[in-house]
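Internal ticket #5521
Category: modeling
Description: The requester needs a full-assembly model to guide mutagenesis choices. All entity lines are attached below as received. Residue total reported by intake: 744.
Assigned to: D.W.
Attached entities:
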Amino acid sequence: MTTTIEPPGLISPEQPGGPDGHAAGLQHDAGDHPHHEGPTGILNWLTSTDHKVIGKSYMITSLVLFFIAGIMALVIRVQLASPTSSLVSFQTYNELFTMHGSLMLYLFAGPFAFGGLANYIVPLQVGAPDMAFPRLNALSYWLYLGGSLTMMSGFLVAGGAASFGWVAYAPLSNATNSPGAGADLWLMALALTGFSAIFTGVNLCATIFYLRAPGMTMFRVPIFSWNMLVTAILILIAFPVLFGAVVLLFCDRHFGTHIFTVQGGGVPVLWQNLFWFFGHPEVYILALPYFGMVTDIIPVFSRKPLFGYKGMVFATMSIAALSTGVWAHHMFTTGVVLLPFFSLLSYMIAIPTGIKFFNWIGTMWGGSLSFKTPMLFSMGFLFAFLMGGVTGVLLASPPVDFMTHDTYFVVAHFHQVLIGTAVFAGFAGFYFWYPKMFGRMLREGLGKLHFWALFIGFWVTFMPQYAVGLDGMPRRVAAYLPGNGWTTLNVISTVGAFIIGASFLFFLANLWVSWRSPIPAGDNPWDGHALEWFTSSPPSHHNYSHLPPIRSERPTWDYNHPDHRTIHTGKTPKVLPDHEPEVEPAGAPS
Amino acid sequence: MKVYGLFLVGIGVFFGVIGLVYWFTSYEDGGFLMLIGSALLGLFPGSYYLWWSSRQKPQADDDPSADMAEGAGAVESFPGSSIWPFILGMGALFTVLTFVFGLWLAPLGGALILSGAIGATVESRRGGIVPLPVAPAGSDHHADGEPHPGAEPA
């Protein structure tokens, strides 16, 4: 069955917005929307090509994997709480930290953002009825689910799951040092999820390039969608390299090649070059979507337009471009990389990131701030990512990196970066868009308890890891000597990890309460800015039956506040007060 | 179209410059090739967009003052639902598992991929066009009074 979608109808600017922030005269009941007659239940899940169903499938799958990986982290922390704990064997410990990292990075943080929220939100934000290639979109999800099951199934085979760390350095990952099917399953899982990501990247590019509504020029696209476009480009640069590296490693393991083994004339450090050419952009593939979420959330809860829209766009582009030129700063200690080149480019990333922080603060400055749960999580992101970013600047210095390489200092650094983005900003986005996705609100009280428990647990867990890392504790060890003096700091870190774990009980309780006793969200509960807040909650099958005129980067706000429209005069957006004569948009025909 | 042409060409130029600097400071061929590959990834589609945008009038989504009616007409054909992505995905899963557990899985993976590819192709060629009542409330006409083009079954 194929459906042709007509462009949504025009709503004239004269139709005023209602006092409750909803578009007056519009009924967003599902009954007024094009009704989709198709399979229901599990058959709907198996056959749906609707970006919203696929987006929710991605989110649910990735959150389940997030909780599994979180439980692995708790086991790791209990093991380290005493110097010579025997909770798990060394082999099991190696499998646990490998799978914890792999699940979090490959199967949660990325797919939750570019498979889940982006899939759901980007077509809504640009005024499209679906992703550009709906069936390719569905295929992406099935490849991702297949890859996830493949990676997890490593625990079921003889020899256990992969145990060479999420970076799979050669020669540790070759067939001699890591025999067994678990390692092969890990490699095949990367191949499947890698293609899933590439297909999603293609789909996001095509959707944003070709399915924008009339009037939605590129510099009116919301920042979240802009960031997803840049992320998609990064995916297209990085993931093919990972796939190539995985194929080469598999050939080394099974087909007698010696690409990464010295014995046959290969070069082990080539794996590091290939992996980190994927791996460092991957950090920003994981970070940029979350930057975008926060950038869309802060203006809404500051009741102001975004400060420096174009600055944000160009900062995102700069971060992405620089991130692809700094891969070897993970390899300073190999002694075979050009230190000044990679160090200088790594330092330069701090400049566009600083611009983003400046603009986030500038947006809040003088605004009418409202600390609802999404805003609280966004604030948490700012503090957490700032700390992770500052220690990243330290690590960009080769002498500091030589001292701290492979210690818990690095572990603390990247957990603060990634939890700051994927967890704090990710949950900011989830709390922000949950009403749109499910048509019901999450409870503010439980949301705030979730935030504060997570925020406290976060600092208690990771600040001691900086100290213990500076004291010399190496990463990826299952035991240490009582005389090392690391026990107290590890106990504190373990207590913090359990506070983080407990915080998610509030989240699960919130979902349960929302499901059992729903509070209807309405179409636009936050008085949102972008186009997704114009349609019903949840949106109908092909998203829109009507669209407002798009004359700025916040068309829904303009429509709902006709006396305070954001007007572009060709320079900085200007918010007009009541009854000021309207300025024509730049380039508009007279 | 011009904006994303410039966007992609900008990516290509950036990686080209960085790649050359990297080569002449390190003479390391692996990283150089990856940087030049990234440069071409931006330059190829970006040049195409720029070339094409110079021969085409601005689209409604590039026009800052465009109305919704200017985008009238069939936007895209979207399948309502399809089982073939699932079949293809399972085919890919069994195919990669062949490399781990042995060739006995290959026929299953191959059969699923083949049937999925054929099914998806046939579905695309057979798919009917079903118009949807999505015009502004109370009207099935454009702002200019013309009926929606593409509203008839193709």
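Resolution: model delivered.
Comment from assignee: The beta strands of chain B are 76-79, 129-130.
Ticket closed.
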